[in-house]
Amino acid sequence: AWDYLEGGSEDEQSLHDNREGFRRIILRPRMLVDTHKVDTSLTLLGSKLEYPILFDPAGGKNCFFPRGELEVSRAAGKQKTLHITNGGIEDTLQAGTAAENWWQLTTGGILMNKQQTRTFVRRLEAQGCKGICFTVDIMHVSQREREIHNKLERSWCETGLPKRDAQGRLPEAKTPWKAGMFTGRPNPLPTWETLAELCSATSMPVIVKGIMTAEDGDRCVQYGAKACIVSNHGARQQDHVGGTIEALPEVVKAVNGRIPVLIDGGIRRGTDVLKALALGATAVCVARPYLYGLACFGQAGVERVIHLLRKELELNMALAGVPNLRSIDPSLVRIRGAA
Prior knowledge:
339 residues, alpha/beta, 8-stranded parallel β-sheet, 39% helix, 14% strand, globular, two-stranded antiparallel sheet
């Protein structure tokens, strides 16, 4: 379970780069600015948020804590953050304990025809969903060598790890993660036209997650997306694509203010959030940090992690002389070693 949470694909180079990219960015604090009050609030796609840190979707939660998606949903509701959910939060929605602002994840598998798409979006609209997060970088099963070594059963990501025997051994996996898996799929994969059809089927904003290039950022705008997320899937899909913070500036430049650009990957501190905002992100998304809290303490751990990140952002904004998000711009940072 730890390796599934902590690992990446193949050489884990992108996993390293996600963190290393932030380490190369240096803050340029501004002195004698009145920061006795710091305002982290923003409006994102019509939703008013108290701070620009969102909960990313993440698989395998049940390996870390029973009914993990519901624990995260309740934590998002208590901490008033925006939750991008993998689904299965009907209990918290009915109880009124889910986040007021939530987006539903899809990888496009249920968007094979117009009828399926309409059924999907109508259900979400009836539940009060505020957006659809279309994740576009997980169309094939990546080679994750920690999972291959551990003979992880992929279905355990949903069911949780089975009980061990008296010798502490897990049962043998029926379909373990393997090396050399054939990359073919039985059905055609989603395309940019799929995105356009999804956007035309609903008034909810569609947010494309998994963008790493300027060209695809521009295509998101052209095909109707209302926002995009610069993401390499936590470095768990394509390896050797670099860190997301390295890709952020070119996507921001290509989008040119037409839609919000968000980012995930490698964010561990309030300073990381501040650096991403300085390079043009409207908000950031986190997964591993709150999963650490989930694994330790369930809902309370998730709440504590997001509280710490939020307070670190506020403190570092005050120390850097930026009293609100509007005052954060690229002049707040420089890149170590850049000309």
